[in-house]
Write a structure and sequence with these properties.
The protein is α+β, with helices and mostly antiparallel strands. It is about 35% helix and about 10% strand. The protein is built from three helices and two strands. It starts with 7 loop residues before the first helix and ends in a 5-residue tail after the last strand.
């Protein structure tokens, strides 16, 4: 199996969680991806145009609307928690 722990969106989430002192629960099926991209390959991808943002739940819709308004895929893919685990 290919190690994807430090690549792509999950590696980025891990670095964000670690430096923020939090844990994260991510729902893989909620991660936007091209229609025909296999999930394991997409998780290992590191597109230079991708963003991983952290926002308060009550602000998430407004943040996503800014991206959607420019036809950029955006989704809530998880939540921060106090577990210090991804």
């Amino acid at each position: 199996a290919k190690d994807i722990s430090m690549a792509g969106v999950l590696g980025t989430a891990l670095m964000l969680a670690e430096c923020s002192g939090v844990g994260m629960h991510i729902t893989l099926d909620d991660i936007p991806r091209p229609e025909h991209a296999p999930m394991p390959r997409w998780l290992a991808a590191f597109p230079s145009y991708g963003y991983l943002l952290s926002a308060r739940p009550e602000d998430a819709q407004a943040v996503m609307a800014r991206f959607h308004g420019r036809d950029i895929a955006a989704a809530v893919i998880g939540q921060c928690n106090n577990t210090r685990r991804l």
